[in-house]
Amino acid sequence: MQKFNQQNAKKNNSHIAFTLAEVLITLAIIGVVAAMTIPSLIQKYKDQAAVSQLKKVYSVLTQAWELMTLEYGPVSEWNLTANTGQEDMLMERLSKYLKFNKICKTTDPQTCFPNVTYLAIDDTNYSNWTEPATSRARAQMSDGTLLMVNVRLTAETDNIPIQFYIDLNGKSKPNKLGDDFFYFFVWNDNKLRPAGWHPDPEEKQTNFQYSCLTHNGYYCTNWVIEKGNRDYLRCKDLSYDGKSKCD
Q1: Domain range holding 228?
Q2: 3-state secondary structure 54-111
């Protein structure tokens, strides 16, 4: 009987050892699959969060802009001129309709934006927005979003007299155009639109091709709003009338 029990114990031990080996193999497989899929899932989550935040900012900024022009009239009547400090006036007017934690005037650019060099979408240096020579007013919105505005040219001669800059995640990295930093333009018809929008579809695609898929990246905003993704960060064969996301 004792010999029989010993034989059964050996069998049971072998069975347990085999089961543990199976578990270890299964765990190893799970680890490999996780290593392959988790980065993709994280990137997808970040993209969805950025798209959602940018659309929210667009909605809030559009509402503020429309209310402001109802009170002060269309932009074509403002007699705007670049490099004259009118950005401070614009930010002061906006503060009636947007919640700001802080406003930094054109003479005090160092505190609202991070003292770093922002990158273009091709990873080259783009600009440091704390340089005092830049004629831009800046603000920190109540949700942490950074906002900047500047007058481009006179409203009578330029199709885009005003441009807004948005950093979605405040002073946090990556501080990169098309990733967390985006442009919006006010056109001469008094409409606020995402940078990259154009009434001519061919011109819109040209803008996207030249300055989102490559070069600076300031024409990515309309793609995010319209297509709902940032796949241009990973795929360079996208187009408005063709492939709209990575495979």
Answers
A1: 40-233
A2: HHHHHHHHHHHHHHHHHHHCCHHHCCCCCCCCHHHHHHHHHCCCCCEEEEECCCCCCC
